[in-house]
Specification:
By secondary structure, the protein is α/β, with parallel strands linked by helices. It has helices at 2-8, 45-50, 79-86, 105-111, 122-128, 130-138, 168-179, 188-194, 243-251, 264-272, 329-339; strands spanning 21-25, 31-36, 62-67, 90-95, 115-117, 142-150, 183-187, 213-217, 236-238, 257-260, 278-284, 309-317, 320-327. The protein is built from 11 helices and 13 strands. The strands form 2 sheets. Strands 9-8-7-10-6-11-13-12 form an 8-stranded mixed β-sheet. A 5-stranded mixed β-sheet has the order 2-1-3-4-5.
Length: 358
């Protein structure tokens, strides 16, 4: 199973699919083949692995898979059926597939007489697939909120200027994070103020291979000549004031993770609604002062209502510091349960900060 997780990591980080690995073992425990899912529309991991073996060797074999074999016909056929037709005698997997239309492969295999073992290295598989699993279970993408600020928590100077608060290393790291998410989201205020392209670029300004889907949230129209309209992935616009519904709509675009990179309005609304799963905060060793704070009102009226975070890591990026944090689990689950479908929000964001290039 550990080898299966290593294989799964070879698959694309972004895209409308789960990253899954598989190892096929002979009845005596020898490795016959390995496979992994290479992206939406390609063979699933167990089918990819079985295709590399003489079919006669599969009878009585064991398939070790990081995710429960699927039980539905989509872009590919049911993996449970493929395993049965191959004559595999035993299937071992880490975690159940949470998809309502996909789950059931294990039951189908058991009903046909295949020995099925589940839960092997389940914690490791859960951690590896956390973004995808959350998006399927909650019906919304994993949400990462980013901002850059001075040491005293300001996102811009009093006159609104914000380029550049952090240095080149921090700004390049932001581009890498854009490429590691399915979508990038800003409010219409950011588009009107900064005219960003919302692309992911390298040190020399070249487009990276993975580009996030640009999403603009808000009721004001995006200008016809806006730079984001030239994005290679096209443009998705979402109106209305229901943040949970807007995020849910992104699932229809195959988005499992979204990188929020606007000004304080959208970020604060998402935090207040309990819809943020991870924070990336880039802190520059400068003091600015003034009213341009990184976040607006979060609905915290008393210190007892403060949003508790767990800091996962701190990383030096040149002179700057990146703090990676997540909401404490118990409080976050409570907020998701109580606020996910009820919290108001809007997308007319103020100017963004610290964008490495427009």
């Amino acid at each position: 199973m550990r080898r299966g997780l290593e294989l799964a990591a070879l698959g694309p980080v972004v895209g409308d699919h789960a990253r899954v690995g598989a190892v096929i073992l002979s009845p005596t425990g020898d490795v016959l083949a390995e496979g992994w899912h290479k992206g939406a529309g390609t063979p699933h991991a167990e089918v990819d692995a079985m295709a590399k073996v003489d079919p006669s060797l599969l009878r009585g074999a064991t398939a070790v898979v990081t995710l429960e074999p699927c039980n539905h016909t989509g872009r590919t056929g049911p993996c449970a059926v493929a395993l049965l037709e191959a004559g595999v005698a035993r299937v071992v997997y880490a975690i159940d597939d949470p998809g309502a239309d996909v789950h059931g492969g294990a039951d189908r295999l058991r009903a046909a007489g295949v020995e099925v073992v589940s839960g092997v290295l389940a914690d490791q598989a859960e951690a590896f697939l956390e973004r995808w699993l959350l998006s399927v279970r909650l019906g919304r993408p994993w949400v990462t909120v980013k901002w850059a600020s001075s040491l005293d928590g300001r996102a811009a100077a009093a006159d609104g200027t914000s380029k550049w608060i952090t240095g080149a290393a921090a700004r390049q790291h932001v581009h890498e994070q854009r490429a590691a998410h399915d979508a990038i989201l800003v409010g219409t205020g950011t588009v009107l103020a900064d005219d960003p392209s919302l692309t992911a670029r390298g040190d020399a300004g070249e487009l990276l291979a993975d580009q996030p889907l640009p999403v603009v949230l808000g009721d004001r129209p995006v200008p016809a000549d806006a730079a984001v309209r030239q994005h290679p992935r096209g443009l998705v616009t979402l109106s209305g004031h229901d943040l949970a519904a807007a995020l849910g709509a992104l699932r229809g675009h195959g988005v499992h993770s979204v990188f929020v990179e606007g000004g304080p309005t959208v970020a604060s609304a998402l935090i207040a609604a309990g819809l943020v799963d991870e924070y990336l905060v880039y802190i520059a060793p400068v003091l600015i002062g003034g009213p341009r704070v990184a976040l607006d009102d979060l609905g915290v009226g008393s210190i007892s209502g403060r949003r508790r975070l767990d800091v996962l890591s701190t990383t030096s990026l040149g002179p700057d510091l990146l703090v990676r944090a997540r909401p404490q689990r118990a409080q976050h689950q409570h907020l998701q349960h109580d606020q996910q479908h009820a919290a108001p929000g809007h997308g007319d964001d103020g100017p963004t900060n610290d964008r490495s290039t427009p």
